[in-house]
Design brief:
The chain has about 525 residues and is of the alpha+beta class. Strands 1, 2, 3, 4, 5, 6, 7, 8, 9, 10, 11, 12, 13 and 14 form a 14-stranded antiparallel β-sheet that branches. Strands 15-16-17-18-21-22 form a six-stranded antiparallel β-sheet, with no helix packed on it. It contains twelve helices and 26 strands. Strand 17 and strand 18 form a beta hairpin. It is elongated. The N and C termini lie far apart (about 80 Å). The protein has three domains: about 250 residues, no CATH class; about 80 residues, Glutaredoxin (3-Layer(aba) Sandwich), CATH 3.40.30.10; about 140 residues, Glutathione S-transferase Yfyf (Class Pi), Chain A, domain 2. Belongs to the GST superfamily.
Amino acid sequence: MILSIPKVVVGLWLCTASVAYHFQPDKHDTWKNTRSPSLIDLSEDQNSGSYWSSAFVTATTGQQFLIVHHQFSTICKSSVLDLQTLKYSKHVDHCEITDATRVVTPDYLSITFPNLSIVADVPDKISELQLSAKSPDYSFSLDVEARTSKVLLNGGNGVIAWGPGYSNCSHWSIPAARTSGKLTLGEKKPLTLDPSKSFTWYDHQITNGVPSNFTWFEFHFPDPSIRVSVWAYDWPESSDSWRYATVRLGEETNLVLPYTLSADWDNAWVSPLSGRKFPQSWTLKFENGDYLRVNSVKEDQEAAADITLYTNHRCPWAHRAHIVLAELGIPFKEEIIDLDTPRTPEYLKVNPRGQVPTLSYNGEIITESAIVAQFLADAYPSHLLPSTTDKNGPLVRARIAFFVDAWFSRVQSHYGKVVFAKSDSDAEVSAKDIVAAIAKEVEPLLTGAAPFFGGNEKITLAEVLIGPFILRIFSLSKAGVIPESIAKELPDAAPRFYQWAQAVIQQPAVLSIYNEEKIVESTKNRVAKLRA
């Protein structure tokens, strides 16, 4: 049996764009499930986390749009897709949650940034939501009557295991709330939304860790009593793969259905920024024999910040930024800066110091490699660096900062002396100093590394900031450009460091731009010139 889905699946459509869609909001008298309890207080949960909305709206002119509005951690993004022309516009900002940008009281919530806001001026902080966003291409303000749509409790009770170590994540959805408001496209006259033909899926999560990858769909069926939230995700360092759909049937029945997911990789879109492939069609098979076939109506709906990295692949400092971008799969454009010639006037306008890396993030310029790397880690929350608002976040960040400082204040100077030594004997002396400094200053800080700093299963900002230099030490030692004694003595002198370093230099993100042959050759030439 094929279930027909004529509505949006996270902005992915099955029917053709020329057909008008029938957006039918729910008509309930409260958002609350009055008979099946959730494991959390949803109004309390609303005070922080990820605020995601997809509004399927019809203007009084008959035009129809998908409007996405999302605030999470340090990211504010919105987009508008015209469902007739398939014209797509998006806007992404870096935004920081502070006491000034977020106001929470027992009966009020406001999150306000220059280009995006969320306001809930009701005692339960859910029943009525005002969502707004603006960009050079559009602006919108939505009045979301969340009280008109019964909550969908993902996983059956609003809490799911959604990260390493079975870490819990709250997840609940208001799937089809009556929506009114205005949408303005460019300089055109504002469009008025028809609330009888417009609804918003409001989605809220508080996460404690992130899966290694995930796919999420929302399904709306011809029968408006059926609303479905579908998850597919894998856990890092594990064979566990979770595939389940939470179905809100009628008003308060929540069903959790396992399924199998297959993606059609022959029908995939490749991001021009990240190079990653995104399938455009999927098949979901359920245990009773039912299945869904889902197809995307438009390939490029990537809502990513406009990032340009000015870099040089030979530079270990620029290498840091590449590791973050590769590890997190962040789309970006690249400008290679020639470090062997005077900087161009154009680049000196971007970075007057003429150094790399330089990051342009939505037109904002960020320089200095450690600052660039940490900015990206904060802007795209992940395993690299915990937020300062996490329970142990400030302590973990302090530990990472101390570890990195120990390397650069106690070890890195000896590496420079090895490379720039005037003779082999001078290089050997500095090589011994490197090994001794690592054994004394760095080795004790790696207690519990399993395999990465702090006992993490994936790299952290510590590996990002030190990895390029460790990689070069082992490459150059192996090639005989610097004393081979470094690589030979470390396993005995600093076994924890050696084991950790070997794990670091094998990571795909660390190796993403590293050309060992060119690095060895260029360093060998520099050493020869210095000793000539």
